[in-house]
């Protein structure tokens, strides 16, 4: 067997609505509470705006909306996961962060075929833990696709 | 002169820490009996802008002062509608397009009553003049420019951002784009569509 299957990864699990997801913990820099964001004009609906993170302007993406899930207005009970994605710092708005999981790559199951195309873009696979289904999320495509940059 | 408060170098230490917090450096050279020279250096990326703080709907925005010609309260008698639809305002002897900023940026769904707001006459780099309609003018201040593109991307009509005294982010308007490129939305068009 190849060594890759024995790779242990630390993942941070979080909840959006009644669904559970997880991402590689190395992508997540910090976790903070929700603060009202300054909206950006003419932006996609999942773009909540920007907040001040110790002097840096941090965009906030409503992850549930990005996945096409039903979402509610953010409140103080929501959580922002500050993630490092492709050289940028981005805030991901979720309902709650639950636990840190140590998972073996071998434990990842392929995404079931019922998933919509939108979900398949972000979900790399799923874990089954104590009867919970936790979807492993790929963060690379979370930000809105940048149109061809003007020269 | 040394007293209970002054002369103990406390002020100097505060200055040094503040400059270092901005990523800069300060040095002193003194010639006894002649004087002292303080040399301050700040990173080029610490760009500062003189801005007019305005509100559009419930949003606080910054309009760059170099682009501003004058501000005025729109009088009903100075307001006209080209073709019955496009608002213009009489300014001196000309008619300038009146741009409802909150409406254009999607902060509000319906146009505001011009005489209830304030019109800021601006001029683009190309010499075009227009009047930007805001809810109110809050004041004037120098703001530190923060990039929106570092962590996100370019946003139409927005040049950059800044952090206000209360810690909130305020957008700095790109007057040129606002006046020339952004289509003024009529109340019926759906501008919630993703760009």
Question: What can you tell me about this protein's structure?
Answer:
Chain A: Residues 8-148 form the CheW-like domain. Chain A: One of its GO terms (cellular component) is cytosol. Chain A: Pfam families: CheW. Chain A: It comes from Brevundimonas aurantiaca. Chain A: This is Purine-binding chemotaxis protein CheW. The complex is a heterodimer of chains A (151) and B (195). Mean pLDDT of chain A is 85; it is low at 147-151. Chain A starts with 7 loop residues before the first strand and ends in a 14-residue tail after the last strand. In chain A, strands 8-1-2-10-9 form a 5-stranded mixed beta sheet. Chain A has a 5-stranded mixed beta sheet with strand order 3-6-7-5-4. Chain A is 7% helix and 47% strand. In chain A, a hairpin with a 2-residue loop joins strand 4 and strand 5 (56-62). Chain A is mainly β and 151 residues long. By secondary structure, chain B is mainly beta. Chain B contains 3 helices and 13 strands, in the order H-E-E-E-E-E-E-E-E-H-E-E-E-E-E-H. Chain B has helices at 10-21, 101-104, 175-180, and strands at 25-31, 35-41, 48-56, 59-64, 68-72, 79-82, 86-91, 94-100, 118-123, 129-134, 136-144, 158-163, 169-173. In chain B, the strands form 3 sheets. Chain B has a 6-stranded mixed beta sheet with strand order 5-9-10-8-7-6. In chain B, strands 11-3-4-13-12 form a 5-stranded mixed beta sheet. Chain B has a two-stranded antiparallel ribbon with strand order 1-2. In chain B, strand 12 and strand 13 (169-173) form a beta hairpin. The interface between A and B is medium-sized, with 25 and 27 residues.
């Amino acid at each position: 067997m190849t060594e890759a299957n024995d790779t242990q990864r630390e993942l941070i699990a979080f909840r959006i609505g009644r669904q559970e997801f997880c991402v590689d913990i190395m992508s997540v820099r910090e976790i903070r509470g929700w603060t009202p964001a300054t909206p950006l004009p003419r932006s996609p609906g999942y773009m909540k705006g920007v907040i001040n993170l110790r002097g840096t302007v941090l965009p906030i993406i409503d992850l549930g909306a990005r996945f096409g899930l039903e979402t509610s207005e953010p409140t103080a009970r929501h959580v922002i996961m500050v993630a490092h994605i492709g050289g940028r710092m981005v805030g991901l708005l979720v309902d709650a962060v639950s636990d840190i999981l140590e998972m073996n790559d071998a434990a990842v199951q392929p995404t079931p075929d019922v998933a919509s195309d939108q979900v398949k873009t972000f979900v790399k696979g799923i874990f089954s833990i104590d009867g919970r289904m936790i979807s492993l999320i790929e963060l690379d495509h979370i930000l809105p696709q940048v149109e061809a940059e003007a020269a | 002169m040394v007293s209970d408060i002054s002369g103990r170098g406390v002020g100097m230490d505060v200055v040094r820490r503040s400059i270092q917090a901005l990523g800069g450096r300060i040095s002193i050279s003194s010639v006894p009996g002649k004087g002292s020279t303080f040399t301050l250096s700040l990173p080029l990326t610490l760009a500062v802008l003189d801005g007019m703080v305005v509100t559009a709907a419930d949003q606080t925005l910054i309009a760059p002062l170099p682009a501003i010609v004058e501000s005025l309260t729109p009088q009903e008698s100075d307001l006209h509608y080209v073709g019955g639809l496009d608002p213009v305002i009489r300014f001196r002897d000309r008619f300038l397009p009146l741009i409802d900023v909150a409406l254009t940026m999607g902060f509000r769904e319906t146009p505001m009553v011009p005489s209830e707001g304030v019109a800021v006459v601006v001029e683009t780099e190309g010499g075009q003049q227009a009047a930007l309609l805001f809810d109110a003018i809050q004041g004037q201040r120098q703001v530190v420019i923060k990039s929106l593109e570092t962590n996100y991307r370019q946003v139409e009509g927005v040049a950059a951002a800044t952090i206000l005294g209360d810690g909130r982010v305020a957008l700095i308007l790109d007057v040129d784009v606002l006046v020339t490129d952004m289509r003024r939305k009529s109340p019926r068009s759906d501008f919630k569509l993703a760009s």
